[in-house]
Design goal:
- By secondary structure, this protein is an all-alpha fold.
- It is globular, with a radius of gyration of 18 Å.
- The longest helix has 27 residues.
- The chain has one domain.
- The two termini are 31 Å apart.
- Helix content is 80%, strand content 0%.
Length: 204
């Protein structure tokens, strides 16, 4: 794998990471409702999920999907159901006042936030196909393990840094005050967008 190919994959993945999707939406909502630390833990879970899909793409999961399409359909249905479940809860609880808890107390544990990020990333199996398209022609079969490890590190950092930044922006006091004033509308928008993404996963 050439250095130019490595940089190409890194930059293309960064653009994919910053594009609006379930991960970015969840990072934004977690930052505004539960604070920066919880949002950062969630971002690390999202990044770990992306690395899982990237490794699966390298080791041929997308080829398995081509030969056994029912597996992709099953995973898509499970992932979409999870997104629709989260969307329903956001919509249903939109009018419920937000309990920010005691100062310095995390509404969700770090481990729980990490798991939420992981599940959010796993809810989109199309990521495996996306990574496959990035790796075709750029990651040859004889690529050394250290190069693959470096590529996975880049994937992790792209996802973790971007989603941590999103969580940080939405955790700022001014942003949170705006959210508190518009919670029903914002939560229903978040829920609606997650629902649309869930339906899109099923339909495509």
């Amino acid at each position: 794998m050439t250095f130019a190919a490595f940089l190409t994959v890194a930059v293309l993945h960064l653009f994919v990471a910053i594009s609006p999707g379930p991960a970015v939406l969840m990072a934004a909502r977690t930052g505004v409702t539960e604070g920066f630390r919880t949002g950062a833990a969630l971002a690390c879970g999202i990044a770990a999920g992306a690395v899982t899909w990237a490794l699966a793409a390298i080791f041929g999961l997308s080829m398995l999907f081509r030969y056994a399409p029912f597996l992709l359909t099953t995973i898509k249905l499970v992932g979409a159901a999870y997104l629709l479940y989260m969307a329903w809860h956001m919509w249903r609880d939109a009018s419920v006042p937000l309990n920010l808890g005691e100062a310095g107390k995390l509404p969700r544990s770090i481990a729980s936030a990490f798991r939420l990020g992981l599940l959010t990333q796993y809810s989109n199996p199309k990521a495996a196909v996306m990574f496959s398209s990035l790796f075709i022609g750029t990651v040859p079969p004889n690529t050394p393990a250290w190069v693959i490890a470096a590529l996975m590190l880049v994937v992790f950092l792209n996802e973790a840094i971007w989603n941590t930044l999103v969580a940080r922006i939405f955790s700022l006091d001014r942003t949170r005050r705006t959210y508190l004033g518009l919670k029903p509308l914002i939560d229903r928008c978040f829920g609606g967008m997650l629902a649309v993404l869930g339906v899109k996963i099923i339909a495509t």
